[in-house]
Every structure is written in C-alpha cells, then in structure tokens.
Specification:
Elements lengths: L17 E7 L1 E4 L2 E9 L10 E2 L2 E3 L6 H13 L4 E9 L10 E9 L12 E8 L12 H12 L2
Parallel strand pairs: 1-7
Antiparallel strand pairs: 1-5, 2-3, 3-4, 3-8, 6-7
Length: 154
C-alpha cells in the first residue's frame, strides 16, 4: 500500500489507533488503599457517571509522560510528578469512541491533596480501592484496579 499524503494537511492514509494516557494515583487512607478517580460526564454514554482514572488523549507533538501530568491536572487539579509506566491496554473496541491504546502511569501526588473535578469530569475523589468493581468503573479500567489490588495484597 502506498503511503499517500494529503497535499493540504500532510496526513497519511493509514488508519492508526489513538494513544491515551491515564494517571494511577494511590495513597494509604484511613480505611485502606485509596485511588484518585474521576467520575465521567455524559460522553461516551456507556461510561456516563462511572469512575475512571484521570486521563485523556496524547496531543500531537506531546510525550505521553507530559500528557499524563497535563490530563491529571485538567481533570483533578492535582500536580503530579514522576510518572512511571504501569501497563498498556490496547484491545480494539476497549473504547467506544475509537480504537485507543491506553498507557497507564503510576503518578505521585501530595496524598493530602483534595481533588477538584475539572475538564470533562463531573467529580474527582479519593476512593477506597475495595469499593471499585466492574459495575462502577468505566471500560477496562477494572483490569488496572485488579492489578493494584493484587499488588497491595501481596
């Protein structure tokens, strides 16, 4: 297949997946391990009102590490640092909007920080990890929750 470029925008004719990033922020709460989550707004409808890791799309020309810190701040107001790669999820169909490859990063945040919902999040909070299940979390984020539960219980 020839790599034909658009003369106007320079884009190629390949259909490539989009790259997303998600911040996995943990702290020890009074009743056990807590994770910083956002509650999804109305889009996509399949995830409306469900918890999710703060995250979003990597902008063109942006590194994933910069993107995850930016998205964390936009959605929770938290200042993150030291992103470390945790997992990659890329099953086609994992996102109802389009084919996305998700990069998940452990990110450090001041454990005393009280999150404030921003951007497209309708809420942001520290949630006890044991209260999260496949019914109240968006998409395949339950896979990361289960991974964290396994790490905590080792």
């Amino acid at each position: 297949m020839a790599n034909n470029l658009c003369e106007v925008c320079g884009r190629d004719d390949y259909r490539n997946p989009a790259v997303t990033v998600d911040a996995v922020v943990l702290r020890q709460g009074l009743n056990g391990e807590e994770v910083l989550l956002i509650k999804r707004g109305p889009w996509p409808i399949e995830w409306k009102g469900k918890w999710a890791f703060p995250g979003g799309f990597v902008d063109y020309g942006e590194s994933p590490e910069v993107a995850v810190i930016r998205e964390l701040k936009e959605e929770t107001g938290a200042i993150g640092k030291n992103p470390v790669s945790l997992a990659i999820l890329g099953e086609p169909g994992r996102d109802p909007r389009k084919h996305c490859i998700g990069l998940f990063y452990i990110v450090d945040v001041d454990p005393e920080y009280e999150p404030v919902a921003g951007d497209d999040a309708i809420d942001a909070a520290w949630i006890n990890i044991e209260s999260i299940n496949s019914e109240n979390i968006a998409g395949d984020h339950i896979e990361i929750i289960e991974m964290i539960k396994d790490m905590v219980n080792e």
